[in-house]
Amino acid sequence: MPQAAPAVTVLNDLIGRIGAVETSEDLMPLRERLGDRLGEVRWVPNPGPQTQAWFCQADELFYGGSAGGGKSDLTIGLAMEEHEKSLVLRRFNSDAEDLAERMLEVLGTREGFNGQSLRWRDTLRQIDFGGCRDEKDKQRFKGKPHDLISFDEIGDFLEAQFRFIIGWNRSVNPVQRCRVVCTGNPPTTPEGLWVIKYWAAWLDPKHPRPAKDGELRWYTTGEDGKDIEVDGIGPHLINGEEVEARSRTFIRGKLEDNPDLTQTNDYAARLAALPAEYRAAYRDGSFEASMQDHAFQTIPTHWVQQAMERWTEHPPLNVPMCAMALDPAQGGADDNVIAKRYDGWFAPLVVIPGSETPVGSDCAGKVVIERRDSAVVVVDCDGGYGGTPIKTLKENEIPCVAYKGSEKSVQRTDDKTQVRFANQRAEAHWRLREALDPAQEWGSPIILPDDPELLADLTASTFQIGPRGVQIELKEKIRERIGRSPGKGDAVIMCWSEGQKQITHLCAGDSAEMGRGTKRRPRVVHGHQSVRNRGGKG
To answer: Topology of 301-534 in CATH?
Structure first.
């Protein structure tokens, strides 16, 4: 495609010419030229944050905040004026169609638009609109390069979709700039929390080195496959290979920055009438107070956050490791996750790629490395990977138990309703819910590491009361919704609920089903004693 003159180049040229005039007569030919050149520009940004975002040099920009800040129009304008080949995405196709209609409204014509493929093109540019509803839909964009990739309402997308699709942010034109632009409001569900983690320097108030709006930070992928912040573009030596880093930034957009919506007070009034949690997200653009729990969310988000606020770097004094839990991957695409527990205090989760444990004995070996104080080990055997690790651990005289969430439970909830559980999985989830409840006499004994992915995992499931009692949403449904296995959450849930059962059995001398290797029972602080020792609710 031939290279087009960007809109900003046109405007800068005009500004330079205006500044050079010396007499009023010199303005006459410039006025004629001005009319000709502005006819080439179909969209220009509003003054303020939208213009700042337009000129932003980040490889990956998040332009977000309150509703009405002109976020969607920014991506449409960039695609029409600054890029040769653009991909504009919404999570659902129907929303992508709405974006395409907005572009046609700006253009004032449907010429060049194919409604079936959601593609617009002229002699200079091509804009593709699309949806990415399911996690697997990301594959539709594989191998299709675009110099602009835009995710409108980024919090609706899965992190796996985002990371996969931006891999094709490139151009064959050496002078065409490539960039990723994300827009959106603060996430209102746990599934969108990854956005705050990805742009943590700007959005997480606990970040050790916070960044200012528009400030560039540079990131690449470390040896463990996780993002690391580096100084500048590089090249940086990673895994023996020199790689260049990509820059990120965040720019906050607000309703008052958009003159198109502030000529009357109607839109602002509608935002002010929203419920408090949505008002914080959509009107105020608050990334700290925007979370909205599902009506039937199994574990309330605030309870988990309180448990994470109680966390300290070291476990309570003289409290041994009493239980471990393994959510195994054994060569699969997911990670192995190990949770370690010292009474109510949980250590940071140990995450090991499945590729590092091709056989079950490898999983067992990782457990042995992490185990202390004769801790009992719980292994998830529902996914088909737990059998060999259990066998290997028992052969090495390590007390362990197979957790099978699908098996029947004979227990009931601890509250007055005394509702039974549909299966062991429902019981395990509910026991952690009960333990996290801050309304207990001594508060909650649970102390969790501050881990955004763990928070998302523990708050992902919903429940219902059916004929068989409390039923927890199927793991397959959760995986489909959040785009990955909730392994960290599962490991913590097993470590608390199932670990507590086995500790009780051991301390009572009931070690028959635990196999051999119970030479020394773990010392355990039961109940809320550790909370009392800390002086109240912590």
So the answer is: Nucleotidyltransferase; domain 5 (3.30.420)
Containing 148, the helix (H) or strand (E) segment is: strand 148-152
Is the Cβ–Cβ distance between 408 and 469 less than 8 Å? no
Range list of H helices, 336-395: 360-370, 387-395
Both tokens assigned to 130: 């699309």
Residue 342's H or E segment, with its range, is strand 335-342
Structural contact between residues 176 and 113, judged by C-beta atoms closer than 8 angstroms: no
Note whether 49-282 and 301-534 share their fold.
no
What is the CATH number assigned to the segment(s) 49-282? 3.40.50.300
Buried b (16+ CB within 10 A) or exposed e, 122-145: eeebbbbbbbbeebebbeebeeee
What is the chain's alpha carbon radius of gyration, rounded to the nearest angstrom? Answer: 28
Domain ranges of the chain: 7-38, 49-282, 301-534
Q: Where do we find the tokens 């409390």?
A: 470
The model scores a pTM over 0.85: no
How far apart are alpha carbons 381 and 327 in whole angstroms? Answer: 8
Q: Quickly list DSSP for 87-145.
A: EEEESSHHHHHHHHHHHHHHHT--TTEETTTTEEE-SS-EEEEEE--SGGGGGGGTT--
User: Which residues are CB-contacts of 117 (< 8 A; sequence separation ≥ 6)?
Assistant: 128
CB neighbour list of residue 104: distance below 8 Å, 6 or more residues apart: 110, 113, 120
Question: pLDDT digit string (tens) for 174-194?
Answer: 999 999 999 988 776 777 888
pLDDT, tens digit, 9 for 90 and up, residues 429-465: 999 999 999 998 889 999 999 887 899 899 999 999 9
